[in-house]
Amino acid sequence: MTARAPQPRLPDPANGTGEVGEVGDAGDAGGVSRRRLLGVSGTAAVAGIVAGATSAYAVSQASAATAAQEAGPTTAPALGLDAAIPFRGEHQAGIVTPAQDRLHFVALDVVTKDRAQLRELLETWTRAAERMTAGAEAAPGGLVGGGPNRAPEDTGEAYGLPASGLTITIGYGPSLFDDRFGLADRKPAALEELPPFVGDQLDPKRSGGDLCIQACANDPQVAVHAVRNLVRMGFGVVAVRWSQLGFGRTSSTSTAQATPRNMFGFKDGTNNVKAEEPEGLDRHVWVAPEDEKGGGAWMAGGSYLVARRIRMHIEVWDRTSLQEQEDVIGRDKKEGAPLGQAKEFDALDFAKRGPDGTPAIPVNAHVRLAHESQLGGIRILRRGYNFTDGSDGVGHLDAGLFFLAYMRDPAKQFVPMQRALASKDLLNEYIEHNGSAVFACPPGLQDGEHWGQSLFA
Amino acid sequence: MSRPSLRRAAPAALALTCVLGVAACTDKVETSSSSTAAGTGGAAGPITVNATDTTCELSATTAKAGTVTFEVTNAGSKVNEFYLYAEGDRIVGEVENITPGLKRELKVEITEPGTFTTACKPGMVGDGIRAPFTVTGTATAGSADQKVAKAIADYKAFVASEADEFVEGTEKFVAAVKAGDVAKAKSLYAQARHPWEAIEPVAESFGDLDPKIDGREDVIAEGMAFTGYHRLEKDLWKDGLQKDSGAIADQLLTDVKAIAAKSKTVDPTALSIAGGAKALLDEVATGKVTGEEERYSHTDLWDFDGNLEGSRQALAALRPVITERDPALQKSLDARFTELSSLLGTHKAGADYKSYTALTDADIKALTVSLDALSEEVSKVPGVVEAT
């Protein structure tokens, strides 16, 4: 779990005690779950939380008969952890959506040669994804409606659980646009395999993929259920290439969220591009119509996803002194302030020198190398997750950061950033990139549309 | 070991013309404003359903057996669904994705009177707004299905033929073991077992005979001796023939003859045949493609072939039934059986299958991917043949 900022005490709209810090309870009239509210970092957000809680409460009252879980359009989606996130919109959900706590990510290869089957699957997936993000079974009556002799259409483990902020985000890998499905001329220009970087230790079994599905939710069971059911619908058309579970978000994608910590114990994603910066999103995250004028024009409003499995040498890090840890990262461990500053959100001052005359933020510190001022203004929207896949064969934690980042053009954003980091970052002593993939995530769907339409238009 | 479910289908309250799954038996007609009932049915004209976010009002809560038409209008603000359930929340018919303002039609065939349940489901989640719905009148006759009777007869004939082959193959194998001819016994082992792998779900239902014939050392029950094919496999490939190998071989032949005779007495149903077809593929998934079944001989691909052939033959018997009721499924089954058979065939060396140990990780994954694709389709067959 990530650490949370101190939680403000809020008046409780459900029972009026005024002593509740778990707004999630307001939407839990059915007693399904009790989860803690995401931390908040500012007073402005507190007002938002109160509004969100009230709204969630109203919904739970109004829909008691159907147990519907819905987020009203005015509800800040991060705030009711059980609420449903709208599936359709200008952009796909799961990108600027305030990062949920849990992830199940899967990369798939298309195994059919039949273009029509792939298109049909994308339609089937759209329908199921929309249902599941609303908190419904993957298919109508999926639990028991098929009667005793059929295999249930829905696997059932999320039945009765709230929507839990589930988002299902789809992406297409460069290999999908080879000669198999007649999609070569639909390939967006910016969708290219990443170049090799210094120090890469990439495992082909954790890399690449024709398609990806990112399922994020505030309940891991809901995220896993979504992927499991979509994979099942795809048998014969797609096959899983690799998958990754993430147990705690490492980035905030909204100012309403506290900055979480990564497995190194440091706050991560402080200066992320956030949902509340529309200009930043347009500049750094969303593909603009002028970016893709040819066959890839369908990507306008979409975003490119870079996924990297970054194994951390946890045991080595843990026996490293605090001073070195902070120098490697470039922030202090407790507050998360840039070295030489006092508060987390203070600006980084790369000119400032410490008492010994050396730069307060070392020249090869992670935050310096990754900072936009060092990279010609480049920024990306990070949406990564901490992972632990148990232990390796020698008793060390197989853990790290499953780095996910959304951007407008990987070649102009991730590639130069990672080149700078791969060659100089002090952190490289403690990490190893062993999985890598890039995907084109199409724009959001309007009413009546499905994923296959823009791709196969 | 798993067995196909011999459980009968739920009482056949549903129409025979409605067994292909919901999609095939519901007639979804979107209309704009004019309500043109596309069928009169048992009720006198369509039953209107006015669905809002909090209510679900039907113009009638009873109907006569036969074709019943519901005309569902979503007067609310949430996406709605309408269901007609039989007992146990089994879906008789449903319409989904009724967006606000839309009117859609659901036609269902109800052959037997009884109590059903209607439900509107605003927002798609939960149990919905429910009410009982009564169907009166007399049962409409379901026509006896000659095709199903023929399917059962065909499958019985297949089982009998495989059972005979199993006895013959075992006789030759046992003779080689008893003659101490290890090389010959090894060459006969996999093919002698092949017919068994094809009819295992039928044959394995007889008490201890299955573990006596086919039990692996690590899965036989406590207190039971390790006998049968896998004991001889261990002798032939690992330990060399033992003093009691001949006696084990004799007992094996006795047991095989017994199980072959009993297999011929089984009276399957269409549902149990379909369940057996699935169970055979489950065997492949959990024991063969993993290389667990034949740990000494590594002849798992022969067993794989036997299971696959058995599954294919079971569904071949059901083919006329499936083709009639769900032609798209039959087409998909054909394509996926062909695909997996071809893939498996690439691992042959001459007339023989390669050793499991010769497979690469990529080979095993490709077989698994193809097997998943087939199994998912085969798992739909029981739902198609259930109402017989």
From TrEMBL, chain A:
**Domain Dyp-type peroxidase N-terminal: residue ranges:** 92-247
* Top-level taxon of the source organism: Bacteria
Which compartments does it reside in?
Cell envelope
Which one GO biological process term can you cite for this protein? iron import into cell
| Keywords carried by this UniProt record | Heme, Iron, Lyase, Metal-binding, Oxidoreductase, Peroxidase, Signal
The cofactor required is:
heme b
Q: Which reaction does it catalyse?
A: heme b + 2 H(+) = protoporphyrin IX + Fe(2+)
Question: GO CC terms on record?
Answer: cell envelope; cytosol
> How cofactor binds (record note)?
Binds 1 heme b (iron(II)-protoporphyrin IX) group non-covalently per subunit.
Which EC number(s) does the record attach to this protein?
1.11.1.-
Region (Disordered): which ranges?
1-28, 250-271
**UniProt-listed InterPro entries:** Dimeric_a/b-barrel (IPR011008), Dyp_perox_C (IPR048328), Dyp_perox_N (IPR048327), Dyp_peroxidase (IPR006314), EfeB/EfeN (IPR006313), TAT_signal (IPR006311)
Q: Key word Transport present in the record?
A: no
* Biased composition annotated in UniProt, kind: Polar residues: 250-260
Question: Would the keyword Protein biosynthesis turn up in this protein's UniProt record?
Answer: no
According to the entry, every stretch annotated as the Dyp-type peroxidase C-terminal domain falls at: 259-444
Q: Which GO molecular-function terms appear in the entry?
A: ferrochelatase activity; heme binding; metal ion binding; peroxidase activity
Q: So what does this one do?
A: Involved in the recovery of exogenous heme iron. Extracts iron from heme while preserving the protoporphyrin ring intact.
PANTHER family, A to Z: DEFERROCHELATASE, DEFERROCHELATASE/PEROXIDASE
User: What's this protein's family per the entry?
Assistant: Belongs to the DyP-type peroxidase family.
Q: What is this protein called?
A: Deferrochelatase
Organism phylogeny: Bacteria, Bacillati, Actinomycetota, Actinomycetes, Micrococcales
From TrEMBL, chain B:
Q: What is the native source organism of this protein? A: Humibacillus xanthopallidus
Q: Which domain of life is it from?
A: Bacteria
User: Can you name this protein?
Assistant: Iron uptake system component EfeO
Domain called EfeO-type cupredoxin-like: residue spans: 43-124
State the UniProt keywords alphabetically.
Answer: Signal
The family database entries (Pfam families) matched by this protein are listed as: Cupredoxin_1, Peptidase_M75
Q: Which InterPro entries match?
A: Cupredoxin, EfeM/EfeO_iron_uptake, EfeO_Cupredoxin, Imelysin-like, Imelysin-like_EfeO/Algp7, Imelysin_sf, Iron_uptake_EfeM/EfeO
> Which segment of the chain is annotated as a signal peptide?
1-23
Location, primary (coarse class): periplasm
| CDD domains hit by this protein | Imelysin-like_EfeO
Limits of the Imelysin-like domain: 151-379
Q: Which family does it belong to?
A: Belongs to the EfeM/EfeO family.
**Heme as a keyword?**
no
Q: Where in the cell is it found?
A: Periplasm
Q: Name one GO cellular component term.
A: periplasmic space
